[in-house]
């Protein structure tokens, strides 16, 4: 029990951060029109690709002769990058359709 | 000093995520919002590689693999995203979402190897964060892959007898094993067991849900991956990961509910809809 309280105490800053970010997330996207549901989902999908930063950190920590970690970490970097790059490009393509067409054509 | 620069770049990245998400929810600014978040992401990635740890030539292979991974991911990701048909967008999102979930789960797997476990030494917060990242990431990965397969028409809707009961049972096993592991019992078999059960749970979770409801499920799994990424952020005390992940976690959950509302249905109705859907159809 004491360790649990210690852990919470040590990470108090992060916990504050977590709770405020949750409330912010709710606040930021309320009032979104239905037409934007799918692009917003796709954009959010790209944003959680930030997990690739964690994969890079894992790789930087890994000892160069620990091949198992290197291989799994490499896979994680590839997958995380797929999430980020694919996510942003797909979102951009979806939003391209919303572009107002020039009046002349 | 340089570590402070890293923290500042993470602050900038976090801000771009919030602003990007906000702009994405308005039609006029949506495209710019997407771009802003992408720039923030690029800054975070570059800063992590260059500042996080001073370059150490004995780790040249690590840097090489990171660079290769980034290039391979970028090339494949761009190609897939450019080639996909407009009508096939939702499953593409689901696929990329699954990749993110897998990434979070793999991070937990590697960190677990490096983690020294004190048996019976009381509460181990790092282990809990790893387990949660592993479970949620795995469920998100396998679930997203099934959703992808369903929308591609490669996987048919199949409902096991008593599917919901089996799902509840599996969820109970996952919870039980997590508590067991947290109490300091069991070796790494329990950890990998959890990985496997979570993967199966993800499959069974999405399997009975009808194809028309897939976008809602993808949105839900999207917020799962966000939460898994946030646990990764918690593990490293990395604020960019924490903000990015938890923002998507909470915004994604709200978005899921909004999508259900737009269809005049409740989330429970969608998730347990297999029964009702079959009766109606």
TrEMBL record, chain A:
Enzyme Commission code: 7.1.1.1
Q: Which reaction does it catalyse?
A: NAD(+) + NADPH + H(+)(in) = NADH + NADP(+) + H(+)(out)
**GO biological process terms, semicolon-separated:** NADPH regeneration
Q: Which UniProt keywords apply?
A: Cell inner membrane, Cell membrane, Membrane, NAD, NADP, Translocase, Transmembrane, Transmembrane helix
GO CC annotation: plasma membrane
List, for all copies, the residue spans of the domain called NAD(P) transhydrogenase alpha subunit C-terminal: 15-100
Q: Where is the signal peptide?
A: none
Q: How does it sit in the membrane?
A: Multi-pass membrane protein
- Which function does this protein serve? The transhydrogenation between NADH and NADP is coupled to respiration and ATP hydrolysis and functions as a proton pump across the membrane.
Recorded hits in PANTHER family, A to Z, give: NAD(P) TRANSHYDROGENASE, PROTON-TRANSLOCATING NAD(P)(+) TRANSHYDROGENASE
**Protein name as catalogued:** proton-translocating NAD(P)(+) transhydrogenase
């Amino acid at each position: 029990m004491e360790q649990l309280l210690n852990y919470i105490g040590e990470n108090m800053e992060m916990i504050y951060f977590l709770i405020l970010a949750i409330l912010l997330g709710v606040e930021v996207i309320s009032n979104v029109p239905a037409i934007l549901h799918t692009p917003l989902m796709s954009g959010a999908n790209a944003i959680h690709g930030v997990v690739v930063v964690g994969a890079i950190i894992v790789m930087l920590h890994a000892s160069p002769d620990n091949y198992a970690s290197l291989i799994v970490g490499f896979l994680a970097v590839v997958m995380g990058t797929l999430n980020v790059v694919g996510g942003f490009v797909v979102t951009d393509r979806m939003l391209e359709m919303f572009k107002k067409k020039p009046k002349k054509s | 000093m340089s570590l402070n620069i890293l923290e500042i770049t993470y602050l900038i990245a976090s801000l771009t995520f919030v602003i990007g998400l906000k702009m994405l929810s308005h039609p006029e600014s949506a495209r710019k919002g997407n771009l802003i978040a992408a720039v923030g992401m690029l800054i975070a990635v570059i800063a992590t590689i260059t500042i996080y740890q001073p370059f150490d030539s004995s780790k040249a292979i690590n840097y090489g693999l990171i660079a290769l991974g980034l290039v391979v991911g970028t090339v494949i990701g761009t190609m897939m995203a450019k080639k996909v048909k407009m009508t096939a967008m939702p499953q593409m999102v689901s696929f990329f979402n699954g990749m993110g979930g897998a990434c979070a789960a793999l991070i937990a797997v590697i960190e677990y190897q490096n983690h020294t476990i004190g048996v019976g030494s009381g509460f181990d917060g790092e282990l809990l964060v790893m387990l949660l990242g592993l479970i949620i990431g795995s469920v998100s990965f396998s679930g997203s892959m099934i959703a992808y397969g369903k929308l591609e028409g490669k996987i048919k809707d199949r409902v096991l007898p008593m599917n919901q009961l089996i799902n509840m049972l599996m969820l109970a096993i996952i919870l039980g094993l997590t508590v067991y592991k947290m109490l300091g019992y069991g070796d790494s078999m329990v950890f990998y067991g959890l990985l496997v059960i979570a993967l199966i749970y993800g499959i069974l979770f999405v399997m009975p849900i009808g194809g028309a409801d897939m976008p809602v499920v993808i949105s839900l799994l999207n917020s799962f991956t966000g939460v898994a990424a946030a646990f990764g952020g918690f593990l490293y005390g990395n604020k960019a990961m924490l903000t990015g992940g938890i923002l998507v976690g909470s915004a994604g959950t709200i978005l899921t509910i909004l999508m259900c509302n737009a269809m005049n249905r409740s989330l429970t109705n969608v998730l347990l809809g297999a029964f009702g859907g079959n009766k109606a159809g």
